[in-house]
Amino acid sequence: MPEGPSIVILREQAAGFAGRTITHASGNSKGIDFDALVGQPIVALRSWGKHFLIQLPPLALRIHLLMFGTYRINERKDAQPRLSLGFDDGEEFNFYTCSVKTIDADLDAQYDWSADVMNDQWNPAQALKKLRAAPDMLVCDALLDQEIFSGVGNIIKNEVLFRIRVHPLSRVGALPAAKLRELVAQARAYSFDFLKWKRALVLKQHWLAHTKRICPRCDIPFHKAHLGKTNRRSFFCTRCQKQYPAALLTPVRSDSRQRSQRTPPAS
């Protein structure tokens, strides 16, 4: 699933369509009146977290690339697009395997831009307030909560928790105040690192935890497990990533084997 930084790149690549008038619209998205899009100028192209937003005078198009969505600018895939927008000079903008919805044109009334970790209006104090209001939430779920950290996805989650040395099954309310502030700060900082590395086509080279087998700090096997209410993959080290509060003797499934959360692997 594309994360916030990838949607920022999409917005940047599509910037040339702002101010252009749509001359053709088609696709297989249900509930979209494609004829109503023809003749409409693109007022703005914006992003909020994992949402790409095409703002028109009467409405806006909200595009979510889901798990496997893609897009093409001035080229096509060998598949029917969910949404295809054409312009008078033959240029086109195509989206595939994604969700396309129409929403109200007043985006400011619908989106909390201060929750978007990539936005200039990002407000870390608001994120801290939301976290403190949910003390029983697991940090692996908190980082994926789009109302708190819009744009953070599973890669960023795993890398941030490894960077700040926090176990994914830690409770938000058990984190020391300094560690909670570090969580918030690194959610944004790593997102911009992600953006820089993605632009340079070297993102995977910088992964320290996500999909990795061995902890680069401890040189012992990572644990891999589907954790939290989100049930997303977590890659973590039981030695250098501390669990708050201290782990109970509750086994967590890891690579089809049951392991204790208390006892770290031997050196």
Automatic annotation (TrEMBL):
For the keyword Phosphoprotein, the answer is no
Pfam families annotated for this entry?
A: Fapy_DNA_glyco, H2TH
What GO molecular-function term can you cite, just one?
Answer: damaged DNA binding
Report domain Formamidopyrimidine-DNA glycosylase catalytic positions. Answer: 2-94
Q: Does the keyword NAD apply?
A: no
Q: Could you tell me which InterPro entries the record lists for this protein? A: FPG_cat, FPG_N, H2TH_FPG, Ribosomal_uS13-like_H2TH
Which keywords label this protein? DNA damage, DNA repair, DNA-binding, Endonuclease, Glycosidase, Hydrolase, Lyase, Multifunctional enzyme, Nuclease
Please write the reaction equations for the catalytic activity of this protein: Hydrolysis of DNA containing ring-opened 7-methylguanine residues, releasing 2,6-diamino-4-hydroxy-5-(N-methyl)formamidopyrimidine
GO BP of this protein: base-excision repair
Which PANTHER family does the UniProt record give? Answer: FORMAMIDOPYRIMIDINE-DNA GLYCOSYLASE (PTHR22993)
Of which family is this protein a member? Belongs to the FPG family.
Q: What is this protein called?
A: Endonuclease-8
Q: Which organism is it from?
A: Duganella sacchari
What's the source species' lineage? Bacteria, Pseudomonadati, Pseudomonadota, Betaproteobacteria, Burkholderiales
